[in-house]
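tool_call: predict_structure(chain=1)
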Amino acid sequence: MNHSESNERVARCLQPVRCLSALVLAVLAGTAFAQSQSIILDTSPTPTTIELLDGTDVLLDPLSGNITATPLDPAACSATTDCSDVQVSITSFNVSPSTVTQGQTTNFGWNGRGAWECQGAGLPATTWNGTKLPAGNQAVSTAALSPDTYTVTLECSNGPVTDTADVSLTVIPGGGGGGGVPAFCVDDGRVPPAGLTQDTAIIDGSSTVTQTWLQLFGQDFPQGNGRDTAIQRDRYASLQFDTDGLATGVSGRVTFDVLQTFVPSGQKIVTLSQCPGDFTDLNDNNCKRFLGQGSVRWAINSGGGFDCVLQPNTTYYLNILYTDNDDAPYDDWACTGASNPTTATQCGDIINSLVN
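tool_result:
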């Protein structure tokens, strides 16, 4: 560089807005910075502040003195200088795990194209709600959420142009003395189906709470005379019972027959499991049946190859889900005996317990 070129560069740096102070130059020269909030220029008589949107890279060229601010996603401004024809799309949005016990943490991942920023919503009183970068990952605690199924939304935007996506997150009650899903069930993936909720009043024509075997039959397991049941659309039943005091070799079956009322019946998944809302066969193939009318056989500490083997002095659940298929993730409700299976308001059976 000759003397005249040096003087020309110094003169150019004296022009307002063209150059940063020596201190800022020392920090920024030749380096890109993501997520900058603003650029402050040391101009006279007062500094000039240029606000930047989230998700912006700032690059200072040490040779020319030029500062370039670009979005992390180049598609955020393309084709025209005013971005009037920009296209915004959310190419991926996921949550893992999608079912968690209350208080656990779940992780969201997303990627938005053409967006300057995104907004998360759907989980009140959590860190998910609020402004986000166009792409990222975020761990979110469910400690402040009540047990329920939540529709979690993500909206990414570039000015007036937006795109929206959503995922489902199910928060189930914590285990312990107050009931709920035991931790080992969550670890094994034996949890209630996402998007469905437990029907807590399944006696036909009654609003009586029925979350246990005793509440349904008025007797402890395995006793139980026939009860008319009706489970509402998009819900499943889960009845807690205990095998306390039952000796090895005691056996029986739980039967399902068509109601003699206007409530239709249909195909269903029935399981005997230590996990509420568990419709998998991860425990014992004989503890799960996909049936219309029929029964689930059980035996204490023994079985003839067709019986669901139950341990004595253990808590179990009778789980029932009306559906037209036996395929994971077990979240399709249907009453196959109704004229329109997917829009029927309820589905039911006469449930009876027989001891051999």
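agent: Residues 3-71 form one domain. Proceeding to next step.
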